Amino acid sequence: THQMACQGLQGGETVASLKRESESLRKKLEEERKKLSDIELNQVAEKIEVLGPLSIKTRRVLKGHGNKVLCMDWCKDKRRLVSSSQDGKVIVWDAFTLNKEHGVALPCTWVMACAYAPSGCAVACGGLDNKCSVFPLSLDKNENLSAKKKSVAMHTNYVSGCTFTSSDMQILTSSGDGTCALWDVESGQLLQSFHGHTADVLSLDLAPSETGNTFVSGGCDKKANIWDMRSGQNIQSFESHESDINCVKYYPSGDAFASASDDATCRFYDLRADREVAVYQKDSVIFGASTVDFSLSGRLLFAGYNDYTINVWDVLKGTRASILFGHENRVSRVRVSPDGTALCSASWDNTLRVSWAAYL
Amino acid sequence: MTINTMAKGGWHREQMSCFRKMEKVIVAMQDPDMGMKMRNQRLLITVIPHAMTGRDIIAWLIHTYSICEEEALHLSGLLVRYGYIYPLKEPRSLVLRPDESPYRFQTPYFWTSTRWPASELDYAIYLAKKNIRKQGELMEYEKTRYSLLHKRINHTWDFVVMQAREQLRASKQRRKADRIVFECQEQAYWLINRPPVCLLLLYSLLHFCTILFYIILYCTLLYYTILCNALPYYTTIETCFTVFKQALGRNRVKSSICLESFVKYSEQYQNHDPIMQGSLPSNPWISDDTAYWTMNSETVPIPTRLRVERWSFSFMELLNDDMGRREFMTYLEKEFSAENLCFWQACEDIKHGESSRIIEKVEMIYKNFLAPGAARWVNIDSKTMDKTLEGIRNPHRFIMDDAQMHIYFLMKKDSYPRYLKSDLYKNMLAKAIVPQETKKSVFPFVRRQRHANPSPAQAVAQATEEDGHAKGAGQAGTKSAAGSHV
């Protein structure tokens, strides 16, 4: 690589000239994008009725973690969920009855990623151990889940996010080593790796598209990248945030995605227009956003912030629909349940809250 | 922000951007036209100028940012916690009381962001001043720290005492009101940056990070000055070039078209979104009644109307619902084109299945769907067929992609629209249930018992036992392939 650098420089280029060329390309790209920006999202949304006041009630408080809850994921059965915390514990709950159904203690701390398998028969989790492991959910209460652990992913830095693809057989991970990777669960084999971020990757999300082969990732380089799972190529890139991107999530149709960042804004990017189309911000919202998720119809965007609040944004009009208090520390993750009936929020206050929301 | 970047000074960066935003609010509050109305406050016998009440602060925030009282309390609480506004009456209680309690703006000289990090030397001088002024005025925790500092920076202690005396002398020459104001400001600054023991944990992290920040900063600067090579820049820029060039060549769609699609999508799904339109008979999380889930389960004999309607939204919606997929299969069987859906499912199974079974599955597909005279031969164009057959010699996970996509679009463009017009679908829609809304309980405080249900893991284990085969994994594979993005 040193040789490569020397060769490059020998070609008469200097770092400065390369940077200048890169800047001019960036400007040109911005111009191209602007040419087709004939209207803004909130203008298109003017004809829609303004939303009234939103009622939100916390209906379940899941207590049981001894430390900060860092991540959670719903099961496809719409009532179970898995959560992971700083002290290495991973718990599977029936949130409806508040029963804890399974518990695993990982040997590492800061389990930042956890995911429920589509079949409901396994969970994946990872964090500071640089790995992502899959645990089949045993029904035998006496059986030690840790014994059945299968180490699947191996990164050279912490694992920040993981998700199963549409089956139990593959997982996709994002890592502090700046890469994402696709793994075969059964063999632990690396199927594809995704390079392009220039800093820690903090989040990823699979596209709900028909051809089902892309995903989005966001990281500390302020970029959100779209990847082709088959070729490993970075097919689209967006850079408009002013600070680390903590979370990315697709709009339900798959034509857009939202991001949450330390710059206290959430943004909405359209994939076909290839640009940012909305910024969700307010002068009274001062602290960084760490997590986002859409309601089922995509009309509302729930975002969790570092000042312990959850702001609900009207995606189309760009205004803030509501604010939710209740957590006593940072909100690390918000996820709407698979059928859209509830919202779960995980927090550094050691609890998870399941809330109901409705327009009455 | 991550635990990784915390060490690299990322925490500092994150805090600074929050400080800047808070400062924006503070500046707006002090705007001569739109800002807060100040008054003079009486503190014992002295009059403090430019003070405001907690009540006024809340009112101004509510009015300026169009927020509710709870949020205004939350926001003003942050401003006090981070030292931008300080209380005059109970200086150690860093909360905002929405009543007549007086507060003042902290002078920018004493903003945490301006004087980051709070210096040990300055703290020593401050404590020394307090000590000299009225003997024994230091609080317990301050006395401990004073003696600790005395030990740690003993070599500059003469300087500390001299500075303290000098500053006290200078302050005596000020007007009493100004002197009191300055003392309040200084006290507030140190309450934030060197809080009493109970908050010590929070701010010791701040202290630790600043030390770490300086160490890392020094090392980073050293790295760049000594090594200063172009390599990191070069590879980054090269990647940027590829992405930019690709982006410049991309076909973009006009915003008016793209954005309209979001409006349409949200409108179409509004009735199906429990948050926007509620759920019938009731939302289980509110009513503790799982009827909504039971009525929409995979194996229910008669589906709900909303569910059947949703199948008409897109081909993907139909396929994502197990019941929808089964119905579609029934329709295709009538049309003698069921092999298309079977083929598509088999391809999905390869794409998302175990690496170890790819070859076996590809062979099965060839035998059943592609080989000349195959039992369920699928009609693919010759070009795609040739390419696929060629690729089967060296099967890999994505070998069926082209063929699968061809069949998928065939079904989507042809069979799917005809299914939606068919009697099979129309009858299903006609007999679908529209649940009655459950009347709210007469006794709202009586809670229904929340019933447990079998875990999905349990359901699969039972099915495996009943079958008697070790097909559990395979079933889970197809089941999960079906039950994907909802």
UniProtKB/TrEMBL annotation, chain A:
<feature type="repeat" description="WD">
    <location>
        <begin position="324"/>
        <end position="354"/>
    </location>
</feature>
<comment type="subunit">
    <text>May interact with RGS9; this interaction stabilizes both proteins and increases RGS9 GTPase-activating protein (GAP) activity, hence accelerating the deactivation of D(2) dopamine receptor-mediated signaling.</text>
</comment>
<keyword id="KW-0677">Repeat</keyword>
<feature type="coiled-coil region">
    <location>
        <begin position="15"/>
        <end position="42"/>
    </location>
</feature>
<dbReference type="InterPro" id="IPR036322">
    <property type="entry name" value="WD40_repeat_dom_sf"/>
</dbReference>
<keyword id="KW-0175">Coiled coil</keyword>
<dbReference type="InterPro" id="IPR001632">
    <property type="entry name" value="WD40_G-protein_beta-like"/>
</dbReference>
<dbReference type="InterPro" id="IPR020472">
    <property type="entry name" value="WD40_PAC1"/>
</dbReference>
<comment type="similarity">
    <text>Belongs to the WD repeat G protein beta family.</text>
</comment>
<keyword id="KW-0853">WD repeat</keyword>
<dbReference type="GO" id="GO:0007165">
    <property type="term" value="P:signal transduction"/>
</dbReference>
<dbReference type="InterPro" id="IPR019775">
    <property type="entry name" value="WD40_repeat_CS"/>
</dbReference>
<feature type="repeat" description="WD">
    <location>
        <begin position="62"/>
        <end position="94"/>
    </location>
</feature>
<feature type="repeat" description="WD">
    <location>
        <begin position="152"/>
        <end position="193"/>
    </location>
</feature>
<feature type="repeat" description="WD">
    <location>
        <begin position="238"/>
        <end position="279"/>
    </location>
</feature>
<dbReference type="Pfam" id="PF25391">
    <property type="entry name" value="WD40_Gbeta"/>
</dbReference>
<dbReference type="InterPro" id="IPR015943">
    <property type="entry name" value="WD40/YVTN_repeat-like_dom_sf"/>
</dbReference>
<keyword id="KW-0807">Transducer</keyword>
<dbReference type="InterPro" id="IPR001680">
    <property type="entry name" value="WD40_rpt"/>
</dbReference>
<dbReference type="InterPro" id="IPR016346">
    <property type="entry name" value="G-protein_beta_1-5"/>
</dbReference>
<feature type="repeat" description="WD">
    <location>
        <begin position="291"/>
        <end position="323"/>
    </location>
</feature>
<feature type="repeat" description="WD">
    <location>
        <begin position="194"/>
        <end position="237"/>
    </location>
</feature>
UniProtKB/TrEMBL annotation, chain B:
<dbReference type="GO" id="GO:0009968">
    <property type="term" value="P:negative regulation of signal transduction"/>
</dbReference>
<feature type="region of interest" description="Disordered">
    <location>
        <begin position="451"/>
        <end position="486"/>
    </location>
</feature>
<feature type="domain" description="DEP">
    <location>
        <begin position="32"/>
        <end position="107"/>
    </location>
</feature>
<dbReference type="GO" id="GO:0007186">
    <property type="term" value="P:G protein-coupled receptor signaling pathway"/>
</dbReference>
<keyword id="KW-0472">Membrane</keyword>
<dbReference type="Pfam" id="PF00610">
    <property type="entry name" value="DEP"/>
</dbReference>
<dbReference type="InterPro" id="IPR036284">
    <property type="entry name" value="GGL_sf"/>
</dbReference>
<dbReference type="GO" id="GO:0008277">
    <property type="term" value="P:regulation of G protein-coupled receptor signaling pathway"/>
</dbReference>
<dbReference type="GO" id="GO:0043005">
    <property type="term" value="C:neuron projection"/>
</dbReference>
<feature type="domain" description="RGS">
    <location>
        <begin position="314"/>
        <end position="429"/>
    </location>
</feature>
<dbReference type="InterPro" id="IPR016137">
    <property type="entry name" value="RGS"/>
</dbReference>
<dbReference type="InterPro" id="IPR036388">
    <property type="entry name" value="WH-like_DNA-bd_sf"/>
</dbReference>
<dbReference type="InterPro" id="IPR044926">
    <property type="entry name" value="RGS_subdomain_2"/>
</dbReference>
<dbReference type="InterPro" id="IPR036305">
    <property type="entry name" value="RGS_sf"/>
</dbReference>
<dbReference type="GO" id="GO:0035556">
    <property type="term" value="P:intracellular signal transduction"/>
</dbReference>
<dbReference type="InterPro" id="IPR047017">
    <property type="entry name" value="RGS6/7/9/11_DHEX_sf"/>
</dbReference>
<keyword id="KW-0734">Signal transduction inhibitor</keyword>
<dbReference type="InterPro" id="IPR047016">
    <property type="entry name" value="RGS6/7/9/11"/>
</dbReference>
<feature type="transmembrane region" description="Helical">
    <location>
        <begin position="200"/>
        <end position="224"/>
    </location>
</feature>
<dbReference type="GO" id="GO:0005886">
    <property type="term" value="C:plasma membrane"/>
</dbReference>
<dbReference type="Pfam" id="PF18148">
    <property type="entry name" value="RGS_DHEX"/>
</dbReference>
<dbReference type="InterPro" id="IPR036390">
    <property type="entry name" value="WH_DNA-bd_sf"/>
</dbReference>
